[in-house]
What we know:
By secondary structure, the chain is of the alpha+beta class. It has 2 domains: 2-20 and 350-548, no CATH class; 31-342, Beta-galactosidase, Chain A, domain 5 (Distorted Sandwich). The protein contains 13 helices and 21 strands. The chain has helices at 2-25, 73-76, 248-253, 327-333, 347-364, 367-381, 383-398, 400-409, 414-428, 436-455, 479-494, 501-518, 523-548; strands spanning 56-58, 65-67, 83-87, 91-96, 101-113, 116-126, 131-140, 157-159, 165-173, 178-187, 192-201, 207-218, 233-237, 244-246, 257-261, 264-269, 272-278, 284-293, 296-302, 306-308, 313-324.
Amino acid sequence: METTRFILLIALGLVLTMIWQSWNEDYGDLTVQPGVIGQQQPLESSSTASIEDLPIVPTSSSESEVPSLVVDKKTQSLLSGEVVHVKTDLLDLEINTLGGTIQHLELLNYPISKKQQDKKVVLLNNDEEHFYIVQGGLLGKNDVANHKTSFTIKNNSYTLAGNDSVSIPLYWESENGLKVIKTFTFYKGQYVAEINYEIQNGTGADWSGSIYGQINRTEPKEKGSRFIYTYTGAVISSPEKRYEKIDFGDIEDDKLSIDITNGWVAMLQHYFITALIPGSKDDQYHYYTLNPGNNSYVIGAISPAKTIGINNSENISHRVFFGPKLQKQLEQVAEGLNLTVDFGIFWFLAKPLYWVLDYIHGFTNNWGWAIILVTLFLKICFYKLSAAGYRSMANMRRVQPRLLSIKERYKGDRARLNQAMMDIYKEEKINPLGGCFPILIQIPVFISLYWVLLESVELRQADFILWIHDLSIPDPYFVLPLLMGITMFIQQKLNPAPMDPVQAKVMSVLPVVFTVFFAFFPSGLVLYWVVNNTLSIAQQWMITRNIENAPAKK
């Protein structure tokens, strides 16, 4: 039916346009420059600015003010500090004694590709091609240990060594007696690390200050696939809005400055996340973003100020998550952190679909077969709706010779042509829009499944069968896109041919256009379309055959 095909074409065009426009907004990974804590007002981009020249920012819990910090190019290179190497069962990372900065982190369970199993995904790194680090320290009116401070260490290598956790202490002491022990604790089987500051006040006077943590990265130069959009940038969470994007352009235009209780901030990229989480969800933290210039973007958090009496000590901590966006783990780390697996506007449909996909995978132990079975499940759920649409198309195909005849008869009279067509529809009891609405109802579900397959890190480097060894990348031999094009061509042949010659030509080239387009899609997504089209062809063929073979009405 012409109307059905036209609406489907519009729907597909809208989906593809949304993907293209979304991709143009952002994509991300990295490059190099400053990290700053400051008041939310314009900062000079000069890398030689001194601490005294910079603006001040109030802590979230008091009226006191603390100096902001800047890192010049030489300091940012992190070449002057010693490197502490840490290895767990999941992480391989480096901590620089200059500020206690996590300057390099590899994910041991995530090779960069199937062919390069020995090379792991580098999430954090300190170089010009991939600048992405986690910094932190203390803020106070007196001498403090910030991310420009040199710490001392007792060892330069740590491993779990069969234990459930490993702790890495870094030491600093000021001339007036303030001591700080910054301790990183990593746990077996977890992507979460705890960063604790033990502050010992031996200054002879009360000390007041806060701790801060910030993620400092650059916007990527290479955007990845032009056909598949996934968000790269910052996000912030609050009880009022659990997932809010702050892209690099937003950081440049309007610096964030807000106090939130039970919140968190993070930097996202496809499949992976780095998040800063307060030590206690009951504390009110000050959250901020900064753009010091030179392609540098910072998002961070400052703890409530605490006063430590003479000869007393205090422990203040926060957590950092760096790893894959595994939903079951994320939801246990912080409230709403699992929302960083972004399923789009139809998330309320996507989440059940993911649950079904994950459940079936528990039996098949193969994500490809899980996709096929989920597609079959959806076709069963929408069987009656699809059948109504296919019956309408079959009936339109049955009466098409009559429609072509009256079109030729009344080609110069549009009003009489439309009236004659309506008479045929009424006589044959055909609703010209009967095939449209059932199909349109299914579109949100199909879009939801699209985002589930695109966002799920579980499908990354997941084997299927034969030549498909990674469902997250395009088919290396283009077999699935070709099959998708063939199934689309067959579907067109089952539909009534367009009466408009121009529309007929447009429809005839669509299978070729979509074959080329889908050649750049992850094979898991194309597998879904191939299976869905194949099942649709089988259902439509049966319905069309039954209607065409039915006895003619007397």
